[in-house]
Amino acid sequence: MNSSDISFQLLTFELFNNYPFLRIMDINFLLDGLREGIAAMTWLEAVAAFLGIASVFYSMKEHIWVYPTGIVSTLIYVWICFQFKLYADMGINAYYFSMSIYGWYAWTHPKENEALLPTTWLSSKGWITSLLLFAGSYVVLSTVLSNFTDSDVPYWDSFTTSSAFVGMWLMAKKKVENWYFWLLTDFVSIPLYFYKGLILTSFQFVVFTILAILGLLAWIKSANAHASNS
């Protein structure tokens, strides 16, 4: 091994040591972590991950089963997040539970002249409201987590929670743009959960990202079809 190889390895070690999120780019570390994650996986995490994926799949299909599967998954993740000190994500899963009940009702009780709640686009006012909700919830959560809890990832935890907060609200209203916020949540959650040692949950968010892209395309088609028939 020559000096340049040694220098590269030292630099890599230093980067991974100082910035553990970067380890998600290390293939060997990923494979080792996946094996360790499977070995350490509890049946509770496995059930939550399976139902979470099922919920996103049903959401992509605009199927009402998005809510019962999501309700059970989120209740399990409330407990898991508490154990791993992901307090904002624990709160957002409790919020998912309440919004799932609201969404279940909203999807099955459309306006009198509509058979189903249609998929539609956000208005300009809706975009402003969504962005204000995102920014406001991030400021509040990051302040609380960084000053009043023992969370070691207060800003990342707050970011994923804030984007998911808006995504769930928009999904209950069947707005196409909910997928933009879910994709934002997924992109950041992949390294966050990997860093916290929840390997399978991290890989679950990889699946979520793929399903969210497919869901976005499907809901765009549905919204355009509704607009052309209106």
Overview of the structural elements:
The chain is mainly α and 230 residues long. It has one domain. Helix content is 79%, strand content 0%. The chain has nine helices and no strands. Helix 6 runs antiparallel to helix 7 and helix 7 packs antiparallel against helix 8. The longest helix has 31 residues. The protein is globular, with a radius of gyration of 19 Å. The relative contact order is 0.13. The N terminus is likely disordered.
Short description:
The protein has 230 residues and is mostly helical.
Number of contiguous helices: 9
Order of helices and strands: HHHHHHHHH
What would you call the shape? globular
- Terminus-to-terminus distance: 69 Å
Q: Which structural class is indicated by helix and strand composition? A: mainly alpha
- Tally of individual domains: 1
Regions with little confidence, pLDDT below 50 for 5+ residues: 2-22
Helical content band: over 70%
Largest sheet: none
Indicate the proportion of strand residues. under 5%
Number of strands: 0
Alpha-carbon Rg, integer? 19 Å
The average pLDDT is 80
Question: Which labels suit this protein?
Answer:
0% strand, single chain
Give the topology, please:
Layout: H1 3-18, H2 27-40, H3 43-60, H4 66-83, H5 87-108, H6 124-148, H7 154-172, H8 178-195, H9 199-229
Helix pairs in contact: 3-4, 3-9, 4-5, 5-7, 6-7, 7-8, 8-9
